[in-house]
């Protein structure tokens, strides 16, 4: 069959199909036959039966399924929709029924689905209630862009309504609630409504946090009242900047009014702490899908059953970060304010869209709430061996905490925030918040592979066409981040809990080059170095001279602690003593001299040291004591050159070593002065035993 024949054949087939459509035959089987036959040359003919006739005198066509036939009736049942909106609604089936209510106790027990939805909305309306008008907004579930899908309306209970106040504009409108959306739904919201949101080539959601690309510690405030006056750490060295109750309520009202003025708000109900007996229920009310997806990843995600019976939250965040605070308000020093009220169990965010403020704000809350239950909150990484031996890793940025706690031969319990209770350790979070700058598949394969659908990428730069991320690009900020569920790490232990730790490892990157690669600590020394929280950063070049700069952060997380560091240190020592844990100080910094003359400790040696700690071999090693700091150092570690275990052996200039050692000892002493003679409550003092564990010269 040549090309012309094929063309003629196809053209005739098309005409016949059009004739069939025009004929309007509803039952072709009853029509007189019209047969199409194809001759050997590819030409077709039409044969009509007697009496055949269609509209406008056209012949009716009977189509029958025949082998190799092209034009035939393959009619399927008509779709069950009268409008295109109904057709679209059929595309999305309703989620599987939430868990059976048999045996369920609490606020939503024995309620119909409609009643449960109503109570959920009433709870959220109460959270968003104005303190002056004493009434919450009118809420309706769903996206306002899909009006037909959100028919139910709920008001706050009658006792929340005070008719003596005049109505506001926001009280005349409905606020749509997007409640515990899935990552896919949040992707749609972000891409459609939030400028700067894109899907990257790996499937992660790239977002922008606006003008603020990091935390604003100088704008974070805590309400100082009769309770917190004595409980919290105030004054020199403390991260807690005070504000009064009235100012907090002014900012809260501003945030709530802003959120209520929007067409929709995004609400997350989630948990903190994998220990079910000590978990905290948190509610996050925000304006951005980016913030909701971030917290979906970072907090513990409730099951359907847990969400049904969630009830009233223990703590609420009002994230109105797109709206500034009033600079003329008392205590305000900029348009940004992150305010914490421990009495009301509320946090207000104004003037910053950086999502990390929510994560670290809740960490501060846990630093306050958990010690009240005799549970120690810790800024640390945590992993567990296959035999159940748990290790805690403390360390500031650049010390190798993430690298050393991520071990393919051990299970990851968590990378950043933990609790240590009478039952063991538990991760506070449900996700990881990893730095992305200079990220590569070779250096950090677990993090690289975790950046996929569902992951939030903050402030990264990507190719506008391929959407491939350039992790070396610092055009937006150097603080690029990825937030992803902990399940994205292959060796994560789910649930994220473990037995009592056997080893507590304090990491320091000593750029002065005088701390040994590893030291075994007694309890007093562990408390001293835990309170000090030391590392050293390399300063920039000034007139061709590079010098290390000592950095101290109490409890290896001073920006987040609420109580005085000695309280956390005392709890740590008590738990270590009770459960037989050993403290270690590991230097991942310089050897053979300070930065500029010595060299960085080889990662392979540090890993050998960590392996020896995990295996227990270092406990049986021979030790000797160093000068000034009085540290116990092993004389040998398998796989590590013995000469580097004592720093003095690696310095060619012994005099310079001694001077540098005394210099660092002086820096430790100066830093510790802020903790001397501190009174815990009305009478407790820092013990002389801890002070005596510091450098002596």
From TrEMBL:
Region (Disordered): 33-56, 133-158
UniProt keywords, alphabetically: ATP-binding, Cytoplasm, Decarboxylase, Gluconeogenesis, Lyase, Nucleotide-binding
Catalytic activity entry: oxaloacetate + ATP = phosphoenolpyruvate + ADP + CO2
Gene3D superfamilies, per the entry: 3.90.228.20, Phosphoenolpyruvate Carboxykinase, domain 1, Phosphoenolpyruvate Carboxykinase, domain 2
Functional pathway: Carbohydrate biosynthesis; gluconeogenesis
GO molecular function annotations of the record: ATP binding; phosphoenolpyruvate carboxykinase (ATP) activity
Enzyme class: lyase
Localisation per UniProt entry: Cytoplasm
Record InterPro entries: PEP_carboxykinase_ATP, PEP_carboxykinase_C, PEP_carboxykinase_N, PEPCK_ATP_CS
Compositionally biased intervals (Polar residues): 36-46
GO biological process: gluconeogenesis
GO CC aspect terms: cytosol
Entry EC number(s): 4.1.1.49
Family to which the UniProt record says this protein belongs: Belongs to the phosphoenolpyruvate carboxykinase (ATP) family.
Protein name per Swiss-Prot or TrEMBL: phosphoenolpyruvate carboxykinase (ATP)
Organism from which the protein derives: Lactuca virosa
């Amino acid at each position: 069959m040549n090309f012309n024949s094929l063309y003629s054949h196809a053209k005739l087939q098309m005409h016949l199909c059009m004739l069939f459509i025009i004929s309007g035959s509803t039952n072709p089987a009853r029509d007189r036959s019209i047969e199409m036959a194809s001759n050997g040359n590819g030409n077709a003919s039409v044969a009509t039966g007697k009496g055949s006739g269609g509209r406008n005198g056209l012949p009716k066509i009977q189509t029958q399924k025949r082998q190799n036939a092209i034009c035939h009736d393959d009619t399927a049942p008509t779709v069950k929709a009268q409008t295109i909106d109904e057709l679209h609604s059929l595309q999305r089936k309703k989620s599987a029924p939430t868990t059976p209510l048999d045996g369920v106790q609490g606020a939503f027990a024995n309620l119909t689905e409609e009643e449960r939805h109503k109570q959920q909305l009433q709870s959220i309306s109460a959270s968003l209630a104005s303190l002056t008008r004493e009434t919450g907004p009118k809420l309706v579930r769903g996206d306002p862009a899909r009006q037909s899908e959100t028919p139910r309306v709920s008001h706050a209970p009658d006792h929340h309504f005070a008719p003596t106040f005049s109505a506001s504009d926001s009280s005349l409108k409905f606020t749509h609630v997007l409640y515990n959306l899935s990552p896919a739904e949040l992707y749609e919201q972000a891409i459609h409504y939030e400028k700067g949101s894109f899907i990257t080539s790996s499937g992660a959601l790239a977002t922008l946090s606006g003008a603020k690309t990091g935390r604003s510690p100088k704008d974070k405030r805590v309400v100082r009242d009769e309770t917190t006056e004595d409980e919290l750490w105030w004054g020199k060295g403390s991260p807690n900047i005070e504000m009064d109750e009235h100012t907090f309520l002014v900012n809260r009202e501003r945030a709530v009014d802003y959120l209520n003025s929007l067409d929709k708000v995004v609400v997350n109900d989630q948990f903190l702490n994998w220990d079910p007996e000590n978990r905290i229920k948190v509610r996050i009310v925000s304006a951005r899908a980016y913030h909701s997806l971030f917290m979906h990843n970072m907090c513990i995600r409730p099951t359907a059953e847990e969400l049904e019976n969630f009830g009233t939250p223990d703590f609420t965040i009002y994230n109105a970060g797109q709206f500034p605070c009033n600079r003329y308000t008392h205590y305000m020093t900029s348009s940004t304010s992150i305010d914490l009220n421990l009495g009301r169990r509320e946090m207000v965010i104004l003037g910053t869209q950086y999502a990390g403020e929510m994560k670290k704000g809740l960490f501060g809350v846990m630093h306050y709430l958990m010690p009240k239950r005799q549970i120690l909150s810790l800024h640390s990484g945590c992993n567990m061996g296959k035999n159940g031996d748990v290790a805690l890793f403390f360390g500031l940025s650049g010390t190798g905490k993430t690298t050393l706690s991520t071990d393919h031969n051990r299970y990851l319990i968590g990378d950043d925030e933990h609790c240590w209770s009478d039952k063991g350790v538990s991760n506070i979070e449900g996700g990881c918040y990893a730095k992305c700058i200079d990220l590569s598949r070779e250096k950090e394969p677990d993090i690289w592979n975790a950046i996929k659908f569902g992951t939030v990428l903050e402030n990264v730069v990507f190719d506008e066409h391929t959407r491939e991320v350039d992790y070396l690009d610092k055009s937006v900020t150097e603080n690029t981040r990825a937030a992803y569920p902990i399940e994205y790490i292959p060796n994560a232990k789910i649930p994220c809990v473990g037995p009592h730790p056997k080893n507590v490892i304090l990491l320091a990157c000593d750029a002065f080059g005088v701390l040994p690669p590893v030291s075994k600590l007694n309890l007093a020394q562990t408390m001293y170095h835990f309170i000090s929280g030391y590392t050293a950063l390399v300063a920039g070049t000034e007139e061709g001279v590079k010098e290390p700069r000592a950095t101290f952060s109490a409890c290896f997380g001073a920006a987040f602690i609420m109580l005085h560091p000695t309280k956390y240190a005392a709890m740590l020592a008590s738990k270590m003593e009770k459960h037989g844990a050993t403290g270690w100080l590991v230097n991942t910094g310089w050897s053979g001299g300070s930065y500029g003359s010595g060299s960085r400790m080889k990662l392979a040696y540090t890993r050998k040291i960590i392996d020896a700690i995990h295996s227990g071999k270092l406990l049986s090693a021979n030790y000797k004591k160093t000068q000034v700091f009085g540290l116990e150092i092993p004389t040998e570690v398998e796989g590590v050159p013995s000469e580097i275990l004592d720093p003095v052996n690696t310095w060619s200039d012994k005099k310079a070593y001694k001077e540098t050692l005394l210099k660092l000892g002086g820096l430790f002493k100066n830093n510790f002065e802020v903790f001397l003679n501190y009174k815990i409550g009305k009478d407790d003092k820092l013990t002389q035993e801890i002070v005596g564990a510091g450098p002596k010269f």
